[in-house]
DNA sequence: GCCTTTCGCTACAGGTCGTAGCGTAACTCC
DNA sequence: GGAGTTACGCTACGACCTGTAGCGAAAGGC
C-alpha cells in the first residue's frame, strides 16, 4: 500500500527461485526439441523442470511469452567480428544466423511466436525487444564499419540511413528465414556468397547512381 | 478390391458435396479473420459452414491442412503483367504480395502453417505445391522477360540460372514477409522502390563483374 | 517472532480433439 | 426399380490441455 516505486524485486517475502527460472527455460527448450511448438504444453514443461504448473503461470502468462524468453537467450551468441570487408562481415553474420535457425528449438519456435504476434501486440513488442533488436544491432555495426572503410559513402540524411538499415535488415533476415524454413534448402557457403554479393553489388550501385536517394 | 486405377473420384456411392467444400473453406477464412490461427477450432469452422464436424475430418486430417487449402486460393490473384522494365515488374509483384499479406487471414495463417511444417514434411510439401510454387512462377516469368529485354544477360549455365532464381525468390518473398510480419512496418511504395532498386542494382553488378559465376 | 511472498500439491470447470456408432440421404451399376 | 456403396448429420465419448483456486509448508525481510 505504501510507496512501491522501487521495482527492484519485492523487498519482502520469499524470493523467487532463480534456479527454477533457469530450469524452466531449459526445460522449455528441451520440450521444443522433442515435441515442437504445437505439442509443447505447460504441464509437460513443469514436469521436466521439476516445478509445479502453478509456478510457471506465476511468471509467464502463457506459452507464447515463455517460449520467447526460452529462445531469446540463444541469440546472445550472435557476434560481429571485424573481418576486414563488408562482404566478409555479411557472410559471417548470415552463417551465424543460419546456424541458429538450424537448431530445432528455434526452427519450430521462431515462426510460431511471430505468427502469434500478429494478433498480440505485447507479444510482438517482447519479440522485438528480446530477439529482433539483438539482430538489428549487427546490421548497424556492419554498416558503420563499411562506411569507415570507405566501402559505403557516409550517410548525410539520417532518415535515409535509418531506412536503408531497415531495408538491409529485412532483406538479410527475411531471405535467410525464407530459405531455411519455407524453401527448406540449406543456408550454406555458396548460397551465402551469392546473397552477400547481391547485397554488396546493390548497395554499391545505389550509392553510385543516386546515393541514399 | 478390383482395379481402381482411375482416380477420377470414386465412381460409386454418394458424391461429396462441393458446396460443403466451398462453405468449409470460406468458413475457415472467416474464422481466421475473427479468431486468428491459434483460437480457430474445427468445431467452430464446422458450425460456421453449417456442416457436421465429422465432415471436416473426412476431408482434412487436421487444422493445418485445412488452413493451407483455405488460404491457398487467395494466391490465385497473383498476376504478372508486363510493365516494360524489370524494376517495374518487381515493384508490381511485391506490392501484390504485400497486399495479400496485409489481409488478416493470410497474416495469421501463413507463418503459423510454415512453423508447423518444420516438423511435418507432408504439410511442407502441401504448402510448397499450393502456395510457394505459385509465387515462384512469377519470379521465373520476370527473369525471362528481363533477359528478353536485354536487362539481364542470357544465362548459359542452367544450374546457375536456377540458383539465381531461387536466391531472388527467397530475397523478395523473405524481405516482404519479414518487413510485414516481423518488423511490422508497412510495405508501401517508397520501401518497395528501395527494395527493387537494390535488387536490380545487385543483379546488374553481378552480371557486370563475374556473371552467373 | 511476525509478516509477506513463493512453493508444491491437489482439485476442478471449461474447452478441444478425434473417433465411433447410428440412421438417413444420394448416387451408380445391374 | 433394387442392391450396393459412399457421404452426411447427429450424438456421445474418453483423453487431453488450459488456467485458476485453495491449502499447508518453506524461505526470506524486519
UniProtKB/TrEMBL annotation, chains A, B:
Composition bias, Low complexity: 1-12
PROSITE patterns, per the entry: HTH_TETR_2
Alphabetic keyword roster: DNA-binding, Transcription, Transcription regulation
Domain HTH tetR-type: 18-78
Record InterPro entries: Homeodomain-like_sf (IPR009057), HTH-type_TetR-like_transc_reg (IPR050109), HTH_TetR (IPR001647), Tet_transcr_reg_TetR-rel_C_sf (IPR036271), TetR_C (IPR011075)
Entry keyword annotation includes Coiled coil: no
GO molecular function: DNA-binding transcription factor activity; transcription cis-regulatory region binding
Region: Disordered, residue numbers: 1-20
DNA-binding region, residues: 41-60
Protein name: AcrR family transcriptional regulator
